Amino acid sequence: xxxxxxxxxxxxxxxxxxxxxxxxxxxxxxxxxxxxxxxxxxxxxxxxxxxxxxxxxxxxxxxxxxxxxxxxxxxxxxxxxxxxxxxxxxxxxxxxxxxxxxxxxxxxxxxxxxxxxxxxxxxxxxxxxxxxxxxxxxxxxxxxxxxxxxxxxxxxxxxxxxxxxxxxxxxxxxxxxxxxxxxxxxxxxxxxxxxxxxxxxxxxxxxxxxxxxxxxxxxxx
Length: 221
What we know:
alpha/beta, Rossmann fold, seven-stranded mixed β-sheet, 7 helices, 14% strand, globular
């Protein structure tokens, strides 16, 4: 596991970890929540996407734990021909989009892990002028953006409906070979997402790989 000590990985991982989030830790804590493998997979997908034409997209940003790591790792501010579109409510999971089976876990996550963070995210991404924060619920927040081609898609919205909506919207925009990483695909509490995303994948004749990290990975054919 030489990658875990690679200075570029360590720097990128730290960038996301120091974003001011309160995932798995109290507000203001500097505790490392040890998601190295999940970030490793995100960075692998982002590096792969650099071989492709198109913008980067993340749906479910919060303070930028994953996307800040990508921006740092790729020196995204220097990629003048690309934008990184960052979609989120920046205040947690919308209750009106939760399925009945998702409510208990998602409401608990809102109480413990999420809060109003838009201004914090704006500050975090200020060094990256080509990172575009779009506030609102998915899919409504897609209405006023001009995204033609997508080389990288990260989906981490914690509930099924907006994740499937995002896949419906971006599927035809994803270029051949583009990676899609689902952050919550394989966890025990993510059954609704798992089943809904699998149904979407079947409708397109593809399959999602389950990773040991709990993530899902799909490559656009």
